[in-house]
């Protein structure tokens, strides 16, 4: 149960982070990855008590379609840029 709560909490944070960064991108502002989000992902990856299958699911970002579904006006290009940016930044942090 704790693992499911951790996964859902991470998904909520990731959705909020992605939506914030989409707005930044649309305004022409620089994309920034929240260090606390990075720290949370690292904690999940480094927690040896977690099942590897769960870890793989837990560090997967919400899909582009999921983000567009909760936007008032979907912007596929912005969502794609933001999701790609976050994935690349997380990969470079590991």
From TrEMBL:
Lineage of producing organism: Eukaryota, Viridiplantae, Streptophyta, Embryophyta, Tracheophyta
GO CC annotations on file: chloroplast
Domain Peptidase M1 alanyl aminopeptidase C-terminal residue range list: 4-93
InterPro entries the record matches: Peptidase_M1_pepN (IPR012779), Peptidase_M1_pepN_C (IPR024601), Peptidase_M1_pepN_C_sf (IPR037144)
UniProt name for this protein: Peptidase M1 family protein
MF GO annotations: zinc ion binding
């Amino acid at each position: 149960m704790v693992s499911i709560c951790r996964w859902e909490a991470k998904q909520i944070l990731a959705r909020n982070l992605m939506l914030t960064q989409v707005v930044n991108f649309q305004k022409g502002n620089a994309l920034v990855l929240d260090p606390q989000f990075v720290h949370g992902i690292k904690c999940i990856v480094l927690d040896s008590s977690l099942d590897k299958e769960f870890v793989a699911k837990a560090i997967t970002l919400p899909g582009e379609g999921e983000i567009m579904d909760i936007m008032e006006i979907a912007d596929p290009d912005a969502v794609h840029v933001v999701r790609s940016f976050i994935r690349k930044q997380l990969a470079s942090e590991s």
